[in-house]
Amino acid sequence: MAEETFEPFGPLQGVKVLNLSQAIAGPFACAMLGDLGADVIGIENPKGRDTSRPNPALPGWGTRMDRRNSRSLCMDVRHGRGRELFYKLLENADILVDGFRGGQMDKWGMSDEALWEVNPALVIVHISGFGQTGDPGYVSRASFDAIGQAFSGYMEMNGFPDRAPVPAFPQPSDYFVGLFAIVGALAALNRAKETGQGDSIDAAQYEAMVRCSGFYVVNYLNAGVLPKREGSHSTSSAGYGTYTCKDGVNLYILILGAGVVRNACKVLGIDIAEDPFYDGMGLCGMGTPAGDILEGKLAEFFGTHTGAEAEEILLEAGVPCSRIYTFADCDADPHYKARETFTTWKNAHDDETMRGVNVVPKLKKNPGKIQRGMPLVGQHNEEILHGLGVSDEEIAQLYDEGLIRQETTLTGK
Predict the structure, then answer these.
(1) Homologous superfamily of 16-213+339-400 in CATH?
(2) Which tens digits make up the pLDDT trace of 177-213?
(3) Non-local CB neighbours of 119 within 8 Å, separated by 6+ positions
(4) How many CB atoms lie within 10 A of CB 80?
(5) 106 among known catalytic residues
(6) Transmembrane segments in this chain: where (predicted)?
(7) pTM of the model
(8) Which residues sit opposite 321 in a β-bridge?
(9) What span, in angstroms and rounded, lies between the C-alpha atoms of 283 and 256?
(10) Which of 148, 68, 140, 40 shows the shortest CA–CA distance to 100?
(11) Are 86 and 92 in contact (CB under 8 A)?
(12) Separation of alpha carbons 243 and 233, rounded Å
């Protein structure tokens, strides 16, 4: 395949990233880096295809977005010539990301210390379910998104109080741990640029979820109070949850804070100065006299207005709310269009295009961009290996030995 050239862009131009991970967390983290200008090489296993890639059963749309702005080298890096070439890539790399179970790189003889012998400034990012250290029985466990949610206590908080817990969707522990991995990687990279010494980031899926549990986990640790599943409505505050309007449209509202309570009372015809209300009231507790009145008035209000009407009235009055959008609603919304939240980019495997989410976050002076779509498996084998000085004859031999592989179709078939 013809070698491609692109103009450098973004605040991470010049940063070289090697990605050994599959599925969601690692590729998502690397896509974020690639969107901001890093040169990302996804190194894929010729003997174990990423199941999240497009295949005959699934279109793999998420992977098409999370492997954009990257190149693909399909090479067995665990031993022999594959390891030698991997180490050559490491010599000039800034960040290495893996997504294996804890300790897997050590088992292959690729401990942090071994990799730093190749490149002392390398930032090594380990993304796993349970971390690289701790109880050995946990470190070696496999994990997926819902496992991270279950083990962290996050899943226990989701769902309705009269039913079994449900996982939050879609895949928050994969995305959360990916974001934490990026924070650690960029912090370590900043230090490595100053000192020439790399670092190792241990990003555990379950710990990312615990960290994002905020008030709820700290409330238990300090007050011994376990959270209750709230379903679609707060169990503590009236006017805080999902309401259905007369046209069946669902709207989420949050009446919290003295100003918001005051504004909501005005819309609903409640005298803020009349007991049990008072000016300066920060919230109305569920089950209290004020909460019961507020809930009754809200039922009347939503029962006589469409979703669009209710949203317009409440927003005009300064009450935070939003209709609960489908992606079709998102796609049609003028704010999404004005900010170009959705965009289109060219496929790397054909002349067609696909739509997806634009670069997030937006940078004013050095914006990110999408220069290439998800590559086919091994699409850039020759390009990358030529850059290491490997001849066409040796590349052919590597194919014959099964150390590298290349697919010519989207599904690998």
Answers:
(1) Crotonobetainyl-coa:carnitine coa-transferase; domain 1 (3.40.50.10540)
(2) 999 999 999 999 999 999 999 999 999 999 999 999 9
(3) 90, 91, 92, 93, 198
(4) 12
(5) no
(6) none
(7) 0.94
(8) 253
(9) 5
(10) 140
(11) no
(12) 9
